[in-house]
Specification:
By secondary structure, the protein is mostly helical. The protein is built from 6 helices and 2 strands; from the N terminus they run H-E-H-H-H-E-H-H. Strands 1-2 form a two-stranded antiparallel sheet. The longest helix has 32 residues, at 31-62. It starts with a helix and ends in a 9-residue tail after the last helix.
């Protein structure tokens, strides 16, 4: 829970401090607006990522794995575009708070969010990694 709060504060800080420095991104509001935008960004990011995974799974099962020939390169080349897409949706939901002049500033903002996500996602690997206990043979 503490990592999620740290991630939320970092995302809100990016909205409030970093995004106004990127040409083409305008953020209007105080830090509470940034926290609200961070919550909306986190929720929409989860929804869009879940939809992308579900569509990929359906396509893979439906084509008996042949879709992987297209999906794997698409994921490798396009995973960094998902945060930019989410940021554009946040700007559509909160137009008085966040606005973009085009896709290029959204991609730069998405890369900032991607770095924050990578830096704060260490707990996923810690939970999946299993260490043998001393009592096991």
């Amino acid at each position: 829970m503490q990592r999620y709060l740290i991630r939320l504060v970092l995302i809100a800080s990016a909205f409030y401090f970093i995004f106004p420095m990127i040409h083409g991104i305008e953020f209007h509001g105080n830090f509470l607006h940034a926290l609200g935008a961070g919550v909306v960004f986190a929720f929409l990011g989860w929804v869009i990522e879940s939809l992308a995974i579900a569509i990929s799974a359906i396509l893979t099962i439906g084509t008996l794995g042949m879709a992987m020939l297209i999906l794997v390169p698409a994921w490798l080349l396009g995973f960094w575009l998902l945060p930019a897409l989410v940021l554009r949706y946040v700007a559509d939901i909160m137009p008085a708070t966040l606005s973009f002049t085009g896709w290029e500033p959204a991609i730069w903002g998405g890369l900032v969010m991607l770095v924050i996500g990578i830096a704060t996602s260490g707990h996923v690997h810690e939970r999946t990694r299993r260490t043998p206990s001393a009592a096991s043979p």
